[in-house]
Amino acid sequence: MRRSRWLALILGPVLLLALPQATAGAAHRKKIEWTAVDVRVRDRCPEARAAATCSSPPSSQGSSRTARMLKTMLQEASRKADWGKGPSLRLSASITELTWEQHDDVLRLEVAVVGRIVGAASVRSRIRVGGRPAERSKLEREALQIVSTGLVTRLADIARKPSAP
Fold it and tell me: 29-160 has which CATH code?
């Protein structure tokens, strides 16, 4: 009983002194708002690739699901990124390319996403990944995760620079 009182008396003020410093860092972070995340895919199935099976632009239901998935991943990556100090930022992103190709037992996905700080610069992130045709949704999720992380990293780097809004 006595030990716990002494321990509380010693550690109490130390913890109280450390608390304002921990909350102060969160108060100076920029508020990040993703205003628009959409899918603007054009049909890019080259006729020269006769062996490949290319998909046409996704249906509205598929594109809205893809946009929601990308927005969730962008928000998660935004929470982890260092945006620097200052006012809030408004960001937007759009998927400009989403191409599926299947060669025998390999499914390839090519994804390109353009991100923009509203009123400032834009960046582009692109990747091409491959996997099993049976794991199509897993492949899509992995590709979008990689692209969203790269996009947020580049946007955060732009936002930290002194000339950024």
Answer: 3.30.160
